[in-house]
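Throughout this chapter, every protein is written as a compact record of paired, labelled lines. An example of such a record is reproduced below:
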Amino acid sequence: MAATIKDIAKKTGLGLATISKYLNGGNVLEENKAAIEEAIKELDFRVNEFARGLKTSKSKTIGVVIPELSNLFCTSIITIIEDILRQNGYGILVCDCRTDEKLEYEATEFFVNKMVDGIISMPVSRDGGHLKLPLSKGIPVVLIDRKVEGLNVDAVLVDNVAAAENAVEYLISYGHREIGIICGPEGIFTSHQRQLGYSQAFIKKGIFPKQELMTYGDYTVESGYRCLNELIKKSESLSAVFVTNYEMTLGAIIAINELGIKIPEQISLIGFDNMHMAQVVKPRLTIISQPIHKIAENVAHIMLKRLSQEKNEDAEIVHLSTELIVGESVQDRTHL
């Protein structure tokens, strides 16, 4: 039979109020704390979180809704968020909505019914419709990497416009003009921002960006493979490609290898997100690196801040910068 708080009281000789105070994070005398911890260890006592949740209306659980569990960016961030929340007494539940708005809504509704204390979301829907239910119930929401217009919600964002602009400006500075881009889905905030940065880099140099060199994937390896092949077919003079996430970068490299195209002699390439891949690919890949640890840390700490507040303040929007890490995958064409 599982040990109870009464068993701890009997073992230590302390009152139920003192033991309850300790179990709920309150301060007790050091000698009492030591006695309680020793009894918990000997009795193998486990707090009934379900019963505690019913009593306090707190589940000590955070729901996380992401577009794709197979996406390295998503899983890397979730791992760090989970570590921080666990250290603060919270667990997480993760739902992969497979970039489907209906599944995204169902996952969020599931979390609300499970009485999670907060929701972390990387939205698929443009209007954030899935967030209206938790927000109406006062459940704090923090967004990762995406912003929803019209919603007063905390968000941690990367300056995706500047990220893409820096990558394309770098290519232009090395004499490239026929530069393709492999974007994410057209309706996604992040994808739109990266496409905007791509276009702005050309416009600043007095060059009109070519619509036919803008392709759209869905953040998967398969779509990166498909889009690279599309770009090769569309432009015989294509000299460079900028790919806007890790999985699509991997797909583009597979397509390049299958076509027997040499990097950077025949095509220059700038990828996204993964330092390890950049070092493994030969020649070493030039990439845009996102501050994954900073993103995750900010998301987790904002959520903890909201959970400790009785009254919500205005939404906190954090903007973080990316870094262009130069490798050997861009050819200098200024002298060609």
Remarks:
- The mean pLDDT is 90.
- The radius of gyration is 25 Å.
- Residues 292-308 form the longest helix (17 residues).
- The chain has three domains: 5-47, 59-158+292-321, 160-290.
